[in-house]
Amino acid sequence: MALRFERLHKHFVAEVCPVDLRRVDDPETLAEIRRGMDEHAILVFHDQPFTDDEHLAFAQRLDGALHTKLGSAAIQKNRFGNEALGDISNVGADGEILQQGDRRRAYGLGNRLWHTDASFQDPPGRYSMLSAKVVPRVAADTEYADMRAAYDALPQETKRQIEGLTVHHSIAYSRQVLGFEFSDDEQNMLKGAVHPLVRTIPRSNRKSLYVASHASRVMQWPVPEGRLLLRDLIEHATQPEFVYRHQWRVGDLVIWDNRCTMHRARSFEDTTHRRELRRVTTLDIPATV
């Protein structure tokens, strides 16, 4: 049965059905999902009750090599024992909700900044796939911004100005903005990476801004002017016309293309309400599938 793609926003994001992704392994359906990603940048799948192993296996079938150098590894061990499985939750290794003053919670607050996954690595992240396990009764949504549409809407003079610039991305920088302190050893583990400010997305050939809270400086510009430029571009890209807000329900799997979107977690009473999601991110390298 052919997949149906229903657009959820005028620029991007589509809901996809009917499909059980745990059982998708035929080349035709996988190729159809990739074409959907090229067009919509974000795909929403409901009722996908993945186990962790099924989640990892599907990500590899769809897009190849997995990102395993999580920034959080600098400060804590992965409670699942697998660095390819990102723990996007407010729960500690003991199963209890993290409270004020917990260093792991303070680090996780950085997810509320606009960011793109693994931009602080080289190669960076390509597709992220976030699976909802426990969703609180209160709103605990995620917002996404279309960086292709944001680039298209820039004045021609701005496009000319930023073409060819490169940017250093550091997850340590984005956390330090919030007052998080790293030890020297932790800081040495988080050197960051340099990427183009404007990317052309393969297959669709659309241009996209590649900025985020991890973006610490424009390599060709003095630091103050470069940071002002990055701030202005993020403000431009996160105007309401470019943003989609996803309301999670248990069993959702949302896939997004980190090369042309940003996202952020919205605030909720996280010291009271449990929220557990798992994220798998693929690497932006030539696909082996």
Structure description:
This protein is α+β, with helices and mostly antiparallel strands. It has one domain (4-283): Double-stranded beta-helix (4-Layer Sandwich), CATH 3.60.130. Helix content is 25%, strand content 25%. It has 8 helices and 15 strands. The protein has helices spanning 27-40, 52-63, 103-108, 147-152, 156-162, 171-177, 184-189, 223-237, and strands at residues 4-7, 14-17, 42-45, 86-89, 125-134, 142-146, 166-169, 193-196, 198-200, 207-209, 215-218, 243-246, 253-257, 261-265, 276-283. The protein has a 7-stranded mixed beta sheet with strand order 1-2-3-13-5-15-4, covered by helices on one side. A 3-stranded antiparallel beta sheet has the order 12-6-14. The protein is globular, with a radius of gyration of 18 Å. The two termini are 22 Å apart.
